Amino acid sequence: MNKRSRSLSCIGAFLLSVIAIGTQAADTSSLRIAVDVPYEPFEFKKPDGTLTGFEIDLGNAACKEIGAKCEWIIQAWDGIIPGLLARKYDAIMSSMSITEERARKVLFSDGYYNTPSAWFGKKSIASLDVSSGEGLKGKVIGVQRGTVQDNHVTQQFSAFAEIKRYTTADDLVLDLKGGRLDVVFVDFPVGESTVLNDADYSQIGEGVQIGEGIGMAFRKRDKELADKFNAALQKLKTNGVYDDIMKKYFSYSIKM
Q1: Do 136 and 160 form a contact (C-beta atoms < 8 A)?
Q2: Given pLDDT bands bounded at 50, 70 and 90, which one contains residue 238?
Q3: What is the C-alpha to C-alpha distance for residues 114 and 66, in angstroms, rounded to an integer?
Q4: pLDDT value at position 246?
Q5: How far apart are CA 29 and CA 226, in angstroms?
């Protein structure tokens, strides 16, 4: 074999290796999923420190369905999308509402649950009009920073009320019960589990439906991985596993 033909052979072998790499399925046997805790009842820690909650159980069931060993990575909400884009983990499963703004940065799965947002405060102000800016004029509102509830309150009521933003739902509820907030605006199940456990507090007004539901988030190029989770979540919705997990945490349906 002369030098030219050997070179062509080498080039051919190189191209074949490139093609092989290009067509090789991404390794999804081990995945890291980001979650912001606490956010009861979706993700929180047991007294022994282990993670639990609706999304933890559902995520583990989906990982089992696709044959992946999944590790949960705790990440504060403010940095959860930047962390995904920086490859600190492979997906986010942390009650992330599907919005147009976020969809410009990440690839969302199909929605896997939807709940209304709701206002909570002391029973003594249960008749407060939370549907208008005039009704909330002069009040101090608490929201979790960077959430759809934050966006909604900022757009609708920032001209009328003071808005305080918190990194965690726990801190927000702590300030409500400490008298530093008049009302909070959060996912209904979060308020139900963290505010309504005190008889002095109640939901105020009607629930508010925001957004297109909750989805897992992936890097835009990881469509194959998103498709796997879509198929797994769909199967869990139809084989009864989703319903069994949901009933552990809710007395009503959040399925979509």
Answers
A1: yes
A2: very high
A3: 23
A4: 96
A5: 14
Domains by residue range for the chain, with CATH: 31-112+215-248 (3.40.190.10), 116-209 (3.40.190.10)
> Residues 25, 85: contact at Cβ < 8 Å?
no
Q: Are strands 44-45 and 51-52 parallel, antiparallel or unpaired?
A: antiparallel
Q: Give the bridge partners for 52, in sequence order.
A: 44
Regarding beta strands 201-208 and 91-92, do their DSSP bridges make them parallel or antiparallel, or are they unpaired?
A: unpaired
* pLDDT at residue 26, as a whole number: 59
For residue 15, is pLDDT > 70?
Answer: no
Q: How does residue 253 score in pLDDT terms, banded at 50, 70 and 90?
A: confident
Q: Contact at 8 Å (CB) between 158 and 136? A: no
HEC states along 156-172? HHCCCCEEEEECCHHHH
